[in-house]
Amino acid sequence: MKEFIAYAKLQFSVDKKLVLTYAIVYFIWGTIMNNFGAAVEIARFTYWWQVITCYIFYMIPISLLLRGLPFHMQYAYGLIAMGVLEFLGYALQTSYAYPDNILDKLFNIRNFSLGMTMFFGLYFPIGNMMVGKIYSAIFGD
């Protein structure tokens, strides 16, 4: 546990501008994805502010912990993180899956949450890559 705490402290000791970049990118990304999910009637958050709790308060710390790891490791750990989030979201009914949505039709209703987890697990390696490029382009680091 001491090793993990030391690792986490190192991963979290970043420039505040990097955290701000994550917050802006993830908030926009989350808002777009939530609106897209609602527009095509796949799934959506029950409340608009869940974009903040999920994308900012949940996903940014995980992204910071995973940054610098190889793509496949970020994805593997991202699957675990998103599996927990998807499970709790639907179990607590803070996420809403539209009945008979396109993913249900393609993959079967029993595979909906698994499919969502597999898709959203990609957010961590892709998000870290995207934020890294944006941060470097703006701040030259």
Automatic annotation (TrEMBL):
The chain crosses the membrane at residues 20-40, 46-66, 75-92, 112-131. The keyword Transmembrane applies. It comes from the Bacteria. Keywords: Membrane, Transmembrane, Transmembrane helix. The keyword Transmembrane helix applies. This is Uncharacterized protein.
